[in-house]
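ok new one. same drill as before - structure tokens go in, u give me an amino acid for every spot. 81 of them this time. try not to just spam alanines like last time pls lmao
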């Protein structure tokens, strides 16, 4: 009879503790998932920086070729004087 009284008295506390435990476990799962996503995005950002740098150098090369072509055309046409 004593155990029934204790259960009747403390069941809300037990339910609250179980709910808190479940919440903490789910929170840990979300944190772990977010850390993995951050790492994946960091890797992706590094890749994008590298691609941007490569594209920048390609654009500079193309512009220098266009500049040379324009200089040759101006020289043939006699416009650049």
């Amino acid at each position: 009879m004593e155990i029934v009284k204790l259960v009747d008295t403390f069941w809300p506390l037990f339910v609250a503790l179980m709910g808190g435990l479940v919440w903490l476990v789910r929170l840990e799962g979300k944190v772990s998932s977010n850390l993995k996503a951050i790492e994946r995005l960091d890797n992706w950002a590094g890749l994008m920086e590298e691609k941007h740098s490569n594209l920048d150098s390609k654009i500079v090369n193309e512009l220098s070729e266009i500049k040379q072509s324009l200089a040759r055309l101006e020289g043939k046409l006699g416009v650049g004087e």
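The radius of gyration is 34 Å. and btw The helical segments are 2-77.
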